[in-house]
Amino acid sequence: MAVPKYYEFFPVILTFLGDGNTHTSEEIRSHCSDVFNLSEEDRNAKIPSGNKLIVSRIGWAKTNLKKAGLIDTPARAICMITEFGKQTLGKGTDCLTLEYVRQLQEKKSDMLPAPAQETVSTSDAQSPIEAIDYAMAQLKSELADDLLAEISKMDEYDFEKLVVDLLVKIGYGKPEQNSDAVTKKSGDEGIDGIVKADRLGFDAVYVQAKKWKESSYIGRPEVQKFLGALVGQGATKGLFITTGQFTSGAADFVKKQLNHKIVLIDGKQLAELMIEYGLGVTTVDTLKIQRVDTDYFSADD
Description:
The chain is of the alpha/beta class. Helix content is about 45%, strand content about 10%. Strand 4 (about 195) and strand 5 (about 205-210) form a beta hairpin.
């Protein structure tokens, strides 16, 4: 099954802590994974930031249970049930819904209110960090689409200059070294740009840049032609970059080349690199997320 929503962990966590002992976060995650019979794929599933999905959801479940007064954290990554949690557990776990736990958080009452009819929105299935992560991923995806739309309006020569600018941004040489990196429109012998890869110009990357439709595929024959152009130039390093896509045959062909290093970058990767290195984009807002500095509070005097 898929990883449960964070509030579906409420009864499982409280029941596990019902023995009155302290338990680590890892023990809780392991127990919950076993109870829900999660596969290895589910246990290792990640959110866009790279954090594990189950860690995010169980972490948010524990935060909600603590705010409701049902569990406590006497030490970092250590949890135990409270007396109020034991009383609640003694009356059964059927009432441990999201709405009920929220009522406890608001009222902080020793009396159990009757569980209200629960209505859960799609966003309630995610922890706040998850929601931010997925929102950022969506914004990044939309930005990548916008970048490719702008690139589609460029002529071939300007696109080739963009590719060179990107390589300089990544760290291949300096702008002044590569001011003439784009080759002439005619007589380029299959090479669109030559980027000096080091300060002294001893090494260079030969570039082929193809501005094709996003739905277009570049196959093995085109990459073979590029390899031939590299051989003709006596070059060993090449970058084939396109706004389209590469076929699996093209990718397999590149892997088999032992004497030449060829890197293939498709439209999606191009947009991601432009975002990562700040080419053609600008920052309009910054989100700062803070947490408690446990080292400060546990530091010895």
